[in-house]
Predict the 3D structure of the following.
Amino acid sequence: MLYFIFEKLQDANVPGARLMDYITFRSVIAMVLSLFIATIIGRRIINRLQMMQIGDIVRNLGVEGQMKKIGTPTMGGIIIILSILVPCLLVGNLSNIYMILLLVSTVWLGVIGFLDDYMKIKKHNKDGLKGKFKIVGQVGLGLIVGFTMWLSPDITIRENHEVRSVEQNHIVEITYEGSDIKSNQTTIPFVKEHNFAYSDLTKWVGDKQTAETAGWILFILVTIFIITATSNGANLMDGLDGLTTGCSAIIGVALAAMAYLGGSVLYSSYLNIMYIPGSGEMVVYMSAFIGALIGFLWYNAYPAQVFMGDTGSLTLGGIIAVFAILIHKEFLLPVLCLLFYIEDLSVILQVITCKITRRRTGTMRRMFKMTPLHHHFQKVGDGSVDAIIQRPYQAVPESKIVIRFWIVGIILAALTFVSLKIR
């Protein structure tokens, strides 16, 4: 909104109107606004949730401090979503296709998470919205993002090409194609030439045009899987005060930096990655995302005054996935979002282990003391739970688990950037 107003002011030669042309300036404004909304207006939303007696449904997991959380307001994800949407609508370029997709994704996933939280509160249990409906919603978003990237003429790249010295066989410079091209290429970490096109895997289906179409279909399927896995991973991680909030903010900083670098020919050339025209606008969105999470952490840090609920956690994971896909860095997520996927995997392994041991021995054993994985560290390994992995034997305090996960998240973010240079 303000972006277009300042465009008109530029036409009228109003001094200072050109400031809105700078992504860095608008990004700072977006972060400040989101921080303000999350901390100041967020307090009023929390008070309102308390008045409406919208408290989280807490199960007795047998861990220290768990039952003290009964009555803590949930659905705090509303604060995060508002803190993202308002700054983006004010200072974002709403004609930019990347900004539009991110805003649609935010609202789409926010509605799914809100319905899930609403059903839990209505039924007074942890069931909420049936899993199949959540999956359908996530698949729907994957289809929207995938087909838009395939069919929209505004989503293009410029492929990077290495110019090598014949004598010394090292890179002299990085050049880019003169025109933007439509491509389903992405970036693969830790390999020498890390541009990978999905159509390379579908050459066997027929001619070049058919292989290209099949490649886009494969890309859409991968998009659906990544959005679903990342969104559910963030949802599973949301079990300790500040855990998902802090980890998501760390991931957001890394993604914002990648979007900024990928949206500049100069920095893209330095990292030897593809240049994505128009992607710099996503930095404005991610700045609001980071500001919203930092502001929300003011109330969500241990001991939490509000929980984000599925309204927040499903949205955060989905946003991270969509953002990475839009900047063609989705295959960096297994490194950057490793903690999310480990949480997913821990639950899967727990279920498989229980079924196999019950079938073979008649007695159910578990892989971990409790899942998702962060709860495993809260349980005492004294043998009271028949788990294969008993360590650590002493229960780890909740705040320490959260801080250690944050530290691991920072290491993973750094490793993600290193992967772009180590080949």
